[in-house]
User: Fold these one by one.
Assistant:
Number 1:
Amino acid sequence: MIKKILVPVDFSTGSAAALRYAENFAAFTQALEVKVIHVFSPQATTGDTLVVPSMSELMEQRDEAFEAFLKDIPAPEGVARKSELLLGFAADKIIQHSENYDLIIMGATGDTGLLEEVFGSVSSAVSQNADCPVLLTPSQAEFKDYNNILYASNSISLSRRAVLEFRDFNALFNARVHFVHINDEEGQQDGKRESLFAPLFNRPEPEFAFEIQEVTADSVQEGIVNYLQAKPIELAVMVTRQRGFWANLFHSSETKQMVLHPKTPLLVLHLEE
């Protein structure tokens, strides 16, 4: 059950959309709390130091901007919103707070909705290192009940622990799940598709509707992108435990498209080492 959701914002249109998405998600799932945080990282200034505002003045100005930002985005009825202005480095503070939350929902980037714009910075750092799942939302995404979810198949996501964690998440939506396994150019296959997930469930079939698809492509990422473009998928799910996940993901222009699909939010589940 998702009780507490953390939403980092930077006052951009992308983070405003992420906050709306998060609070509509919270209303649908009956989450108990949405905590909105803004992390202020003062930048070094140049020029006449006599006119540089004090830290207290800077914090007061940022707090006013935060309040104005939140005022323009009314919380849905029944959603308990809390907010806090923090001082420090954004990624570090978000990761630090993540241990107290069940889910982080944040924009893939502040302006364009393309994760490549912030590759190596806040969104990618949080996605790798947070202590809870992270849901990245494109700037134009609007939350609605998930009817179809893509679950990307790899050696990690096929672990029983990963599937059980995902099954608990999907219990909130009862979406049809597309388990997509990619046969890449190296010809790696795990046998018949019906046997891929059979050992992972307590019962012969999970309680939600599902289909298992094998897709042939030059790379795993290309296969998933093609599937996202061909099917009405509202959420893509990936599982990772490697620190180098994003570096591997972004090794070529084709792989970037896996999480840059313009209408598909991405949920990153983490498995502890």
Number 2:
Amino acid sequence: METRWKFFVLEALKSLRGNFATTVAAVVTVLVVMFIAGIGIALGSYVYNYSNKVRDDVTIRAYLKDSATDKQIAEIQRTITETPGVQPDSLQFISKDDAILRLQEQLGKDSELLELTLGNPLPASFEFKAVDPDQTATVAKAVAGLPGLDPPRPGLPNPDYGAGKADRVLKTAGTITLVLLGMGVVLAIAAVLLIGNTIRLSIFARRREVEVMKLVGATNWFVRLPFMIEGMICGVAGAIGATILLAVSYQTLLADRVETAMAGSGSPNAIAFPLLVVLLILAGLGIGALGSGLTMRRFLQV
């Protein structure tokens, strides 16, 4: 068995050397495909995690009138608690003092501007989340209009959950994912075709040998395997080159920016680089095997 596999690998390497120019073209194509795929997977995983974070962080805020009585505030709290779909233990009361302190923390050095205002213009509010982020609008609607809540104004809904921002983020994330997926499919097809062309040239140069092997009883897999190994070598070589290029690009161009962007706690992360390397190598193997396997079918009919 070991001798047979050695024979298959040696035959594949000999064929690759014999078609060096097309082999290099196939490897470079796979490298480009895997490099773009690596960027796409990393960016796509970040976009996916970020969109999930946006969905999970959607918070409904019900703003109270300054004139709201204790009875009205208690009734609003009871209604929110009993509303189906509200996340248990997510309800939080934010007083006017808490609201101004939170704003000061967000503004940082610019919080000195608040000292120029007369009094505290921020209302007290209740903050809570829906169990299912997709049901946020339904939950918010169930609380709207309660006595003691500020009436909604144009551009200032109450309750408010940042619907416009959340929808824009999720729509943009979906568009980016579709574009990356489309690019990946087109480039993968190009890589499969080029590897197939490389294998086709190799088979054409050895077509008599293939015919003789078939005539003396060689099975399809015995004939096919060296060519599939040839395609898989091209695929893996391109994938390894792409991972090296990705590692160099990340370290030299993106590392500082990514670390800065991820500095905030709870920031979404892209896929781990070791896992990305494994995925790219497996994809290279798959593309190489597919390209050679599809090409071989026509030549095995003797």
Number 3:
Amino acid sequence: MLLLKNGHVLDPYNQIDQVADVLVEDGKIVQVGQVRERADNAIDASGCYVTPGLIDHHCHLYPLAKIGLPAEAVCFASGVTTAVDAGSTGCATYPEHRPFIQSSKLGIRAYLNVCSTGLSSLPVLEDADPAHWDEGAIRACFDQYAGELLGLKLRTSAPIVKELGYAPLRAAVELAEKLGVSVMVHCTNPPGEMSELLSILRPGDVLTHMYMNQGSAIVENGVVKDCVLQARERGVVFEAADARAHFGLEVAQTAIRAGFWPDILASDLTALSMHLRPTAFNMAMQIAKYKELGIPFSTLIKLCTQAPAAHMGMLDTIGSLTVGHAADVAVFRPLQRENIFGDRPYGNEGQKQMMGETVYEPVLTLKDGDMVYRSVTF
């Protein structure tokens, strides 16, 4: 039995935002509130936030991607208990990586790249030509691994799709419609106007890297484009997943001031961007950055717990501190400390920066009730 005492519990799904205790037993949440029962292991979480384990809805994991991050080490140390691999594998490579996924303590789901080999060819760009997709093998993957695969992934950057323009995106959406799944589209430096891209997407499809500033973006002349507002009204999901360069500080500032916040907050971490200042770094740093940009902390916790869990169809198991659910829990200590946030790595031309005053230090992570990470200071 484990008792987290006196922490500020933030559980958006259950509308809890108060100092309370969390009792864990046999890997499950047993009680949230004023716990009078004695526990063998009681930890004082005073001054810390206690939240559901974070869900990183967009990252790339090793060995699914050669440039993937070491999943458990990076995720558990940043409060993440469930990670979504965003298209590192395709129908020809996903099956061979399933043993890793199945054996990981970290909860893992995936988007399947429309390209058969996924991102395994990097640094050579993947083949986005629909004529080369193996629709039969893609369908077989979704039939066989329906509980593991969330949807299709396509990178629609101009250097990838080339003269094909938006034809691959139209084909991906058409295939997703047949399969009954959603599409996640990487929109950085698109081959045409943002308005055309968004017009292709359906309710539930995900536009990731929403605040990117390469090519046609979601803002123009200091305002959020009408086509973007209309897409949200139709149910298109906007995800902030910034990595090293899929983010423009001025775009984000303009959109957030106008109230155009993400539907989901993720990271797009790889081995190239994990722990890299002043960019995404990890999910805890993403939260700190968007808090500095003006989004309330409690809202940000919702955007990386309840919101992705709902989109994944998994609110019955993850994304909250619901009694009876598996004890996936994160504890963060707010620290008043100056920190630079930037939209490109140091040394990159055109980098924009802002100074923040608060960071959130991950001090404890529970996965299924096990302490998979604990800071020596906690």
Number 4:
Amino acid sequence: MRIAIVVTGLGLSARATQAAITGLPASVTVGLLPYASDAPCWLSAARAAGHEVVLQVPMEPFDFPDSDPGPHTLRAGSMSSANAERLNWALTRFTGYAGVTNLLGDRFLTDSEALAPVLTTLSRRGLYFYDAGGTSRSVVPSVAGSLGAPFAQGAASLDTIQSALEIDRRLAELENTARANGSAVGTAFLYPVSVERIALWAKSLQSRGFVLVPVSAIVSAPQ
């Protein structure tokens, strides 16, 4: 049974980013922001430590602009050419990532017409898309399936409540999902408590019959 963990937010804080890179098990996938200063350096450091890296692309949430992922946000209902320019901006910030994930984006991920060209572009570039599980209304599985685009679907966030007890509970739930389905993916932010609990949890994971893997090991392959 395989479990993948994606820890996002790398590049916001140098101290927190370094702590996540060095404190997390190598098999944990890390998400790097396109707005990060010294992003290529952080990506190199993450890969040198054994981490698979995904690029966090800003996408429109339901409460936009109250919640704003920043400039170059992919928008639901926008012309594909406009979103193509925004996506290209993010994809060209640095190189060496294995896939892309959403930064916010719960509204964008419910718009199949806006999503399809994005998944097509990523697939052509040999990149998978990881849906970080922000909304139960996501159309990623159906759109990716119809396009034959590689993707992985995440469960709910592991650290919506930033307490050791709650994170441990969510990690146990992730194990239950993996038992039922053969694999599972969870997402967390690089809060110190999240890094600490994930690192501790991973130490005994193998003894419970699980293997911690990068997201690419769980991605649904194109048909």
